[in-house]
Amino acid sequence: MTHQKTNRRRRRSLALALLFAASAATASAQHMGADAGARGSDNSAGIELIDPKVLRVCADPNNLPFSNEKGEGFENKIAELLAGKLHKELAYAYYPGATGFVRNTLNAHLCDVILGMPQGNDLVQPTNPYYRTTYAIVTRAGSDMDGIVNLDDPRLKEKKGRIGLVANTPPGNILAKNGMIGLVKPYALMIDTRVESSSAAMIHDLEKGDIDVALLWGPIAGYYARKSSAKLNVAPIVETPGVRMAFRIAFGVRNSDQNWKRELNTLLAQNKAEIDKILADYGVPMLDESGQPIVKAP
After folding, report:
1. Separation between Cα atoms, residue 99 and residue 277, nearest integer Å
2. pLDDT digits (tens, 9 = 90+) for 131-179
3. Which residues of 253-262 are buried (b: 16+ CB within 10 A; e: fewer)?
4. Domains in the chain with CATH codes
């Protein structure tokens, strides 16, 4: 029984970590009924897009670097690119990226696609992945911790480095195995992104010297390092056997929308170079299938 409870806790922790990593693009709110989308079908095969002339994206309104209402996130930029390729207008349905996001957006037929979902999330049907990324270590350039690429680096223990960690994310499992939880300053996983950001708070603490190392989801780490007034270095965390750090990120659609998924897969393949450039411009640390960096984050 104890073993079963432990496994359940691990699955819940991973699910929360995936939810933290996943986000969707946003720009202008839509106010539609819960049965919207049952009325407009793209073709006889039964793709129930809300409006065939509009690309409607499920979105978090304040979750950079992924999305915000001003269209400043990299998922906003990808949505704009795809809308242009589809010759459609672009619109968004907003909901904070927390519990209930899929239920209250995609599954409520308020929108037709989520632009950032880890493969393996069974709440949606994933497209082919369009990038692979990982959790990352952020350090101050020139500090005692600069150059650390894995969480068993002896400098962390010897110097009792203070480690910023979003609670219940995979790096915490490595720290626990290494007996280093006592060095952790925790930051909340489940927050209302409309009013706060654990990631921004952690980077601010790193800049001030309140922590020595920040452990963040790669796209967030790369984005905030580029924005920082301090010189920060970002390195993908080296994976430890039994603890998964890297995830493939895809679009998410409803399970019934098979043809829509195929159309999106075609778009992703045809526009890979442009999408990769957008990701690189935002400092997203991308990995190939062997785990090697494709684009080096700052």
Report:
1. 31
2. 999 999 999 999 999 999 889 899 998 888 899 999 889 999 999 999 9
3. bbeebeebbe
4. 2-131+248-288 (3.40.190.10), 133-236 (3.40.190.10)
Q: What are phi and psi of 158, to 5 degrees?
A: -60, -40
pTM for the full model?
0.81
Tokens of 153: 């680096």
Cα distance between residue 157 and residue 152, in whole Å:
8
Q: pLDDT tens digits for 31-66?
A: 222 223 333 334 434 456 888 999 999 999 999 999
**CB neighbours of residue 182 within 10 Å:** 8
**CA–CA gap between residue 261 and residue 151 (Å, rounded):** 38
Using alpha carbons, select from 108, 114, 124 the residue that is nearest to residue 36.
108
* Cβ–Cβ < 8 Å for 105, 64: no
Write the CB contacts of 65 (distance below 8 Å, at least 6 apart in sequence).
Answer: 73, 74, 219, 220, 222, 223, 282, 283, 284
CB proximity list for 5: less than 8 A, separation 6 or greater: none
